[in-house]
Design goal:
This protein has about 290 residues and is α/β, with parallel strands linked by helices. It has a domain of about 190 residues: Metallo-beta-lactamase, Chain A. The chain has 10 helices and 13 strands. A 7-stranded mixed β-sheet has the order 1-2-3-4-5-6-7. Strands 8-9-10-11-12-13 form a 6-stranded mixed β-sheet, covered by helices on one side. Strand 3 and strand 4 form a beta hairpin. Helix 7 packs across helix 10. The longest helix is centred in the first third of the chain and has 28 residues. The radius of gyration is 22 Å and the shape is elongated. About 40% of the residues are buried.
């Protein structure tokens, strides 16, 4: 009898341990993200995946991007910390899954809007949560006396990037057209470094003093200008190297420059996935 009781205690102990472990794993998955105020009425949710803009109005919330599928409930919980009102609209800045991954969840409670090219990219990629609303050049969402403008300003990160502008707050959300570390040029989905420079120039034509990038820390206008300048600088470096006889095989090592921070991030998407397409793009330009 004592042996049976002992076995029972061990079994119950193991069961309690696994219940605790499962509970802890669930808690960890729900504590990946953070919310902070950018300006009155505008917050940002950070953590793995793209930065989410949270625009509060008297009639509900407008989200800019929605991270990964597993983040849906945590995003809603974080929004509930700053308002009792529901999410009414989600604007996808582009199709990548770290920015549009929770679309399927939000389509049950809100409308999702994106550029027509971004939706086409989602369809081609067989992604879940296809937006029901698209636009071509520009559109606006009016909610609770607030206007949020959405622009297609040209190719860059992809061929379907949206720039979201909060005119009353002089703030933009650039999605991955703005990147705090090192950008990824998605050539498979219409990305272009040359187009990117022109697109950032178009962003700079807006009246803003604050910018939310797709990844990284909040920028000011100078930060956006510096981003544009580095894009021009890496383009010029690649042109110089190709004119000097650079071949594609050597491009990843030869592009590295101590004055260009993007080339210093060895494991970043610019160095790991953009360089060969970048080489091809510049080669065609200078032919």
């Amino acid at each position: 009898m004592k042996m049976k009781a002992r076995r029972c205690q061990i079994t119950l102990g193991l069961l309690s341990f696994f219940v605790l472990l499962v509970g802890s794993t669930g808690a960890l998955s729900q504590n990946r993200l953070n919310i902070s105020e950018v300006k009155e009425g505008l917050h940002v949710i950070t953590g793995p995946g793209g930065n989410i803009g949270v625009r509060l109005t008297s009639e509900g919330v407008i989200l800019i991007d929605d991270k990964f599928p597993q983040d849906f409930q945590e995003i809603r919980s974080l929004v509930a910390e700053v308002t009792d009102l529901p999410v009414r609209y989600v604007i996808n800045t582009h199709h990548h899954g770290d920015h549009s991954g929770s679309n399927a969840g939000f389509l049950q409670i809100a409308e999702v809007i994106t550029h027509k090219n971004a939706r086409e990219n989602m369809v081609r990629g067989n992604q879940d949560g296809l937006p029901r609303l698209i636009y071509s050049d520009e559109t606006s969402v009016f909610l609770g006396g607030v206007e949020v403008r959405v622009f297609y300003m040209g190719r860059g990160h992809t061929n379907g990037d949206s720039v979201v502008y909060f005119p009353d707050l002089k703030t933009v959300h650039g999605g991955d057209l703005l990147h705090g570390i090192a950008p990824f040029i998605d050539y498979a989905n219409g990305g272009s470094s040359r187009g990117w420079v022109g697109t950032v120039n178009n962003i700079l034509s807006l009246d803003f003093d604050t910018a939310i990038p797709g990844h990284g820390d909040i920028m000011d206008r100078r930060g956006v200008l510096n981003f544009r300048n580095q894009m021009e600088a890496v383009r010029q470096r690649m042109m110089t190297l190709i004119r000097g006889g650079l071949n594609a095989v050597d491009a990843p090592s030869r592009i590295v420059d101590s004055n260009l921070s993007w080339t210093q991030v060895e494991d970043g998407l610019f160095m790991q996935r953009s360089i060969l397409g970048f080489f091809d793009e510049i080669s065609v330009e200078i032919q």
